[in-house]
Predict the 3D structure of the following.
Amino acid sequence: MAQEPWWKKAVIYQIYPRSFMDSNGDGIGDLRGVIEKLDYLSWLGVDAIWLSPVYKSPNDDNGYDISDYTNIMDEFGTMEDMDELIVKAEEKGIHIIMDMVFNHTSDEHQWFVESRKSKDNPYRDYYIWRDPVDGHEPNELGSVFSGSAWEFDEETGQYFLHFYSKRQPDLNWENENVRKGMADVVKFWLDRGVYGFRLDVIEMLGKVPDEMIGANGPKLHDYIKELYEDGFNSTGKGEEIVTIGECWSADIDIASKYTNPENKELSMVFQFEHSSLDEVPGKGKWELAPLKLQALKDVFEKWQIRYDKGWNALFWDNHDLPRIVSRFGNDKEYRVESAKMLALLLHGMKGTPFIFQGEEIGMTNVAFDTIDKYKDIEIINMYNEKINQGISHEKIMESIYAKGRDNARTPMQWDNSNNAGFTTGTPWIDVNTNFSSINVKKDIEETNSVLHFYRNLIRIRKNDVCIQKGNYQSMMKDDEDVFAYTRTFEDMKILVVCNFHNCTKDININMDTKEVLISNYDNEKIDLRNLKLRPYEAIMCRI
Ligand code: NOJ
């Protein structure tokens, strides 16, 4: 068999550039800010950076509405900065992975500017236009950001489709020129030296709006295979780069189609099954439900064991999700312990771990008191819609505090100076008020910190074939507080035991330990047969 791809041993760090580091005092993070922090990322030990979109954009959805795929957003810098970032990161052994939004563009993209001009414009068919039906929207399709997915355009008297904001018109992938255009975008970035792509809502490319189909349309996989041939593998390097598809609806069968190496589509997918366990089933992200630990264990077990035609992307956080320590941990009394426990639980598994900026210092959710402090289009649209339905401000804010995307988007907390060291100007979104106690500088100085724990986890994984490749087996499946599993590779075995809750637990595991690899409490030696787990205690040991 060919050599294992680099990304199977990698840990990938996601940067949301707007909130990472501002180098010029305009309150918005930028590429030079990322360059400044490369030493930090190298010290942490990550192998690649997934860079959320940095292309030209009017920022209706913070860069996920792209108006020019081969130029850099003014606030973020220039193409020279981007080239420098790619080169300097590579010098430190860090690959750059670009975020590609292929389902839609900005309404300011030249294709759409042309498309909306007239029904016979050559670009008309690049997007999805339909006549009104009885003076209304063509059908009931809804936008992820509230309201209808159809927007009426006065100019030509037709509706266009937008599964996201009305400033993010959906592309028509039936159109060959769209497909070729996007393959060219891939080539452009490969030529500049990037090592992969994160593919935004890739599952939507095969949409059939007239049949109410969004995700997983009939031609989806044909389009991705074509993108592989004409884009990812256009220079014969398809096997060397990494591609990760964002696939909200993927179950194991669907995920396998994308990632079965024989199919030549993608390297990995982000699936979100574990990430929807704290919502009322079928009611969407805003309807909150308590997490049941057994359900979480079942989901992980399923993906760890049954997903044998693919490789897992392991993640808790990203720019669309709340902070994991606030969500499944305890961001008050046991913030440090629970952040470490969650890290250990995930990084002990099989797959490629992703760390979202700030997760490595246990950054928490934020709770702004007024809606005007929030910047995310999804939050704002949902708030207005629910207020109009008569739901109280307090009730809506409760969901926003728990699930709103701005939880992940407050500026990175570098130190305890003004604005957490993120900017010398006024930040585009407020800094979390807890920055003086939660920041990188402090965590570097304190060897017991969440940050050092992440760094150690990365190092341990890198040197341990059993963590990289070992088979997963669940333990204590019915226990309501403890999440435990083993990993086995040849004659090596590793045990991970995590107390998921704020309680003490006496447990008995009939095994001998050889060595404690890492733990979030003082645990030089442990007796597994007489283990007294403290709140959120987590241990990884060789057995
Ligand atoms: C998924 C991205 O992660 C999210 O931030 C964005 O709003 C939507 N796709 C639309 O591009």
